[in-house]
């Protein structure tokens, strides 16, 4: 009995130390509403995880470039930005952007409201479960409800997209992934914050694609004219519960993204990893920066010159982790063809993909590609919605 009490005191002592260091947060419930709090990381946590080193004129964080894109917004040395983006897309397909013009207050508001939502009981969250979203494929899923390579991810999340009403021609045509969003009653304000965020980050995505166009030697408006005049825009909010030291599961398994570019905001918890030429490297949070990575379609369009890089997440921080990826993809009916590169350069170093697939051999519209991919993530929903036409 004395030995058990001693072990208990030791465990409590370690817990107090972790609490003082900010490495864990006490989980408590609101007695009035029965709500668990999903805590924000400590305000000083970012400073403990990211490291900078200067290579030439390019700032790097753990090997990934940090690019100031402010000239794309307000004029200046646009060519310099395009060259840096082009180099980052060739080298890793992952980079950070700063000088983007997105107010940090907007991201903070979405983060705060998302934590309130994920702190609700599952019964309340299930009022906007994905099975209620129909072909629009919107709504909430619980931990383990999404698959990567056939294995459940240790995360829960909400799927959003462009807010399209019943009069929109794409909705009337019954296109999957198009339609209205599902928003919860609580927390109040999530709807307006999410829709504002989607609009703002979508505009940022178009700006980045203009920079890529210049870097590829194309007209600045090439993507707008050929692929993204009516893009498929998808937005997710993911909550990753902390995994303990003996849990060998992944918060998100190794994968690549499907479309053109992903623009990711992440909180200070860390856990994102990118597969580089010499193995996995961290992509830690950087204050007021977005992570940008390329999807399968950009690798296909550029013949492998640009890379769709595998990445994964494991939340071993002992903190509640949130991430906010927005996917800016080709329009549903767009046929994704090779880019007319000025120098005709095509990479010969395509290598074997993580999933054994060949995006260069595939042909068809982007809608056909993405619906197959998404169906593997939610096979039960695919069977219920896409095959029945409900």
Task: Give a summary of the structure in a few sentences.
The protein is α+β, with helices and mostly antiparallel strands and 390 residues long.
Keywords:
single chain, 390 residues, alpha+beta, Jelly Rolls, ten-stranded mixed β-sheet, four-stranded antiparallel β-sheet, 18 strands
Question: Would you write up a description of this structure?
Answer:
The protein is an alpha+beta fold and 390 residues long. It has a single domain, classed as Jelly Rolls. The chain is built from twelve helices and 18 strands. It has a ten-stranded mixed β-sheet. Residues 3-35, 44-49 and 51-57 have low confidence and may be disordered.
Mean pLDDT: 83
Helix content: 25-40%
What is the helix/strand order? Answer: HEEHEEEHHEHHEEEEHHHEEEEEEHEEHH
Biggest pleated-sheet summary: 10 strands, mixed
> Strand fraction band?
15-25%
Low-confidence stretches: 3-35, 44-49, 51-57
Overall body shape: globular
Strand order of the largest sheet: 3-4-5-6-16-13-18-11-10-7
Helix and strand content put the structural class at: alpha+beta
CATH homologous superfamily?
A: B-lactam Antibiotic, Isopenicillin N Synthase, Chain
CATH class category label: Mainly Beta
Radius of gyration: 21 Å
Q: What's the CATH topology name? A: Jelly Rolls
Query: Do you know the CATH architecture?
Result: Sandwich
Number of domains: 1
Instruction: Give the CA-CA distance, first to last residue.
Output: 61 Å
The strand count comes to 18
Give me the number of helical elements: 12
